[in-house]
Structures are given as C-alpha cells and as structure tokens.
Amino acid sequence: MKINKVVLIIIIILLLIFINKFFLDSTKNSFYNLTSPIQSFFGRIGDSSSNFLQSFLETKNLKKDNQEILKQNQKLLVDIQEIRNLKEENQELREVLDLELDKEFELILVESISRETNGDFILVSGGAEIGILEGMPVITKEKVVVGSIDKVYKDFSRVLLISNKESNFDVEIQKRDNNEEEINEIYGLAQGKGNLNIDLELVPQEKDIAEGDIVFTTILAGVFPKGLLVGEIKNLRNSDVSNFQEAEIEPYFKNNLSEILFVIKNFISQEEI
C-alpha cells in the first residue's frame, strides 16, 4: 500500500513537470500571440514618443542655432556696410586731396541724411561736437555750392539749400564760350525760389548774358567764398520796361547732391557775424 502511494506521488510529480514544460509553454505562447499586437502598438507609441521628443529637441536647438546665425549675419551686414561707408569716405577724401581742396579750404566731411519736406533743407551728420557752426558753407567735392549751415545740434546740422526762399547771394556770370583775353565781369543776384529752383536777378540790361553761361559765387556780401559753382543760366527773360534782365539758374547741386558733402570750416558768412 505504501508502495502504491509512493508510485502515485512520483506519477503526480512527473505529470506536473510535463504540464509545466509543455502545457505552460503552449499557454505562454498563446498569451504572447494574443498580446503581441498590443505590446507592438504600445512599443511603437513609445518609439514614436521618443522620436518625437528627440525631433522636438533637435528642432528647438536648430531654431536657436538659426537665430544665432541670423544675428551673426545681421552683424556681418552692418560691418560690411560700415566698411563700404569708410571706403566711400576714403575715396571722397582722396579725390578732395587730388583736387587740392584741402589747400584752399579747411573741410569737415559730413554725410547727407535726409531732405526736409517743409522747405529746401537737408539734414547732415556732424554738429557742434566736431566744430560745425551756423553760417558755414556746404559744398560737394566738385566745389559745387549746396547751401550753408542753418541750425547746429550736438551730432547733426541742418543745411539751408541755396534754392531756399530765404537764400539770396551775389553771383558772377562767366560766358561759357568766352575766349577773350579781357574778362567782362557780370554780376547779379541769385534768389532761391523753393523746390530746388533759383532765379537770377538784377543783371543790367546792357550786359551780354545767354543761356548756358556759368554762374559762380562771389565774395560780395560775404555769404560764400569766391569761385564756387552755382549752376548755369536757362530761360533768359528780357523786359522792355525794366533796367534788369532775369533768368532761371539750373543749380548743379541737384545732380551732385551726393551722400558725402563738405563743410568749409574756415569761412563764416558775414551775415552771421
């Protein structure tokens, strides 16, 4: 009887081992078959989440890098523009030296910034800190007169153009085709009319002037130095009832109003004294 119990126990142990080895493996396999799609789904979600997070971080870093590159490019553009401005200023100064204007005048280089819409004025860089004073003439490197300093601020100055209605100054007219040894001096008055227009007035009737003749500044009245280019005569008007001739002056500065101008430091209008 005892033997039968032992045999039964052995049979039960062997059966459990068989079930554990074969039946449980089959059950696990079935369980894995059932759950593998779910595990795969959540696995993909996990991978996607991980990839999304990584992509988000990479995009954020890339955006930060792009912003930094943009800032560097903007700074580089500013540096390039400054180099161009310095190169332009140096070129203007070299041309002034070639023309020997520095021997004739003491000059301050300024830059034309803007033109005011409420009158014939322009704003230029440079003001009281670099020695600019009211009444100083403003010219181009070609010795074309532009106007005179009207108001001075710390870092900027306002220029009253010669076409301004408040501007009038004595001028000398020279014949464009004058080959005579004796120069016939002809004087008149340049009067600003606004909107970049200038009239020539008070030229005696007996004086021979014609369209195309060149108009220069003269030292009379002490507004500008002698010999600066103003423009040329056009639309000559004669009158039988007046002792004077009139005409329009086509001002040269309209075509030569470049960004770089020069203030004559060693000349101040007598009107300002």
What's this, in brief?
Helix content is 39%, strand content 30%.
Provide an overview of this structure:
By secondary structure, this protein is α+β, with helices and mostly antiparallel strands. It has two domains: 44-99; 107-178 and 186-273, Rod shape-determining protein MreC, domain 2 (Thrombin, subunit H), CATH 2.40.10. It is built from three helices and twelve strands; from the N terminus they run ααβββββββββββαβ. The strands form two sheets. It has a six-stranded antiparallel beta barrel. Strand 4 and strand 5 form a beta hairpin. The radius of gyration is 45 Å and the shape is rod-shaped. The mean pLDDT is 76.
Helical fraction: 25-40%
Q: Distance between termini?
A: 146 Å
Strand content: 25-35%
Reported CATH architecture of the largest domain: Beta Barrel
Rounded to an integer, what's the Rg over CA atoms? 45 Å
Q: Largest sheet, described in full?
A: 6 strands, antiparallel, barrel
**Main CATH class of the largest domain:** Mainly Beta
Topology record:
Layout: H1 2-99, H2 101-104, E1 107-116, E2 121-125, E3 137-139, E4 145-152, E5 156-161, E6 168-174, E7 186-194, E8 197-204, E9 214-217, E10 229-237, E11 244-251, H3 253-256, E12 260-264
Antiparallel strand pairs: 1-2, 1-12, 2-5, 3-4, 3-12, 4-5, 6-7, 6-9, 7-8, 8-11, 9-10, 10-11
Question: Features of this protein?
Answer:
273 residues; 6-stranded antiparallel barrel; rod-shaped; Thrombin, subunit H; 2 domains; 39% helix; alpha+beta
